[in-house]
């Protein structure tokens, strides 16, 4: 068994599932993927869950960086993707950690408005990044969405949502 | 898939209702009826699907202690491809000395209703007058002979597991298509599967190669006519090392069984309930299996219900799929959606360990 590990820190099960399915498509074995805990139900605070754990996750990743990658999945919600990126940078600074370097295998996936927006978009539906698209039944679309994400990861189409295009660029940090 | 179970007057279940999802984790403290729930589903499958005697599983002395009530009621609902099925069984004591027997049974199926009362089975089609099929014995299910094929296939496909690796041997005298709930007959079941499901077996073995260090394959050798031995083969520096299945560790045997359930049952769209799948296996092995069985259930319309106290399983499944069995005092059991504590940054397992999940 390989000792390489990709750790996924996501704010909820759909975030985790989309990335897990993508990684499987990309050829990672089940034992190479480690899913961090997800919060209990009654969500709405999933972003806080990830933000609380981000600096620790980066610190642990850097201790083993040669043997792994860290993927963080965090909704932009009503803000811009850049705001989340700055927020994550600030968490490292406040913890006395260096900024994320260009060559580090730390991947930020920041769906706007949320992961459901990406899932619907990847499944061919018209969505707007500023609208909340959450509704029952979207979870079932995750396998198809992950397959499309894998297809797009080498060459995203022109209509690809800006936050998803940024994420595809981030995925290039994976080995 | 199983969508509802109602039980009244059996063990700790009084007017108990449970609505399972396609994936569900059942949490609860000791004595909250989690294992009794699995027994109930298993017993109903045996009585209705396998036509076994009702008093072989449901006992008069297992009626709810604090109820002074003769009748026991069991209801089961399933959503299948053909539509919704609702099954109801009412049992109770008959005679002196009293024996547990079937009082009545009903199955509502798409375009069909079966009703078994007082030893007479009536079959209703399209609202027309009933056809009385026969007067079966009240020791067992009366609807059995007229049971719709889709419902029968589903209910006989329900599997309830309480894996016990110490019960498993290596020697097989003949293959067995029916696995025992503790998988004590794993070797015989596997011999059947190798022949019956070669494609699933290839995926199963591949998964084991990723999951067990140096594992290569399972093989069946025939040392003498009529007997087979199940071996596990490992590779050490490229050379094979062969071990009889019962010489593997408890954890290795348990892990092999969990992947077998995933590939041979869930991959065929079956409903499985597994009581404490985490027993015996190491912490690092739980998550890859858990993700694998979830993937399989999603891709093949399987249904996976886990009963567990393990922190790894709680932290992955309690949030999205958890329900809690809760019992006030020594009274009736209720099912509540797991809500956690949205304000807390503690993991689900920590919340549960501190008893803060029910506050």
3D structure, described in words:
The complex is a heterodimer of chains A (175) and B (359). Chain A is of the alpha/beta class. Chain A has one domain: Rossmann fold, CATH 3.40.50. Chain A has six helices and four strands, in the order E-H-E-H-E-H-E-H-H-H. Chain A has helices spanning 13-25, 46-63, 81-94, 115-122, 142-152, 162-171; strands at residues 5-10, 33-35, 68-73, 106-109. In chain A, strand 3, helix 3 and strand 4 form a beta-alpha-beta unit. In chain A, helix 1 packs across helix 5 and helix 4 (115-122) packs across helix 5 (142-152). The model of chain A has no long low-confidence stretch (mean pLDDT 92). By secondary structure, chain B is an alpha+beta fold. Among the domains of chain B are: 2-22 and 44-156, Rossmann fold (3-Layer(aba) Sandwich); 166-248, no CATH class. Chain B is 28% helix and 32% strand. Chain B has eight helices and 18 strands. An eight-stranded antiparallel β-sheet of chain B has the order 2-1-4-5-6-7-8-9. In chain B, strands 10-15-16-3-17-18 form a six-stranded mixed β-sheet, sandwiched between helices. The mean pLDDT of chain B is 93. The interface between A and B is medium-sized, with 27 and 31 residues.
Oligomeric grouping of the chains = heterodimer
Distance, first to last CA of chain A: 17 Å
Count, helices of chain A: 6
Give the SSE string of chain A: EHEHEHEHHH
* Structural class assignment of chain B: alpha+beta
Into which percent range does the helicity of residues of chain A fall? 40-55%
Gross CATH architecture of chain A: 3-Layer(aba) Sandwich
Structural class of chain A: alpha/beta
Q: Biggest protein-protein interface?
A: A-B, 27 and 31 residues
Average residue pLDDT of chain A: 92
Q: What number is the mean pLDDT of chain B? A: 93
Give the % helix of chain B: 25-40%
Silhouette of chain A: globular
CATH class of the domain at 2-22 and 44-156 in chain B: Alpha Beta
Q: What is the number of E strands of chain A?
A: 4
In whole angstroms, the N-to-C terminal distance of chain B is 32 Å
> Any idea what the shape of chain B is?
globular
Report the CATH topology name of chain A.
Answer: Rossmann fold
Count of structural domains of chain A: 1
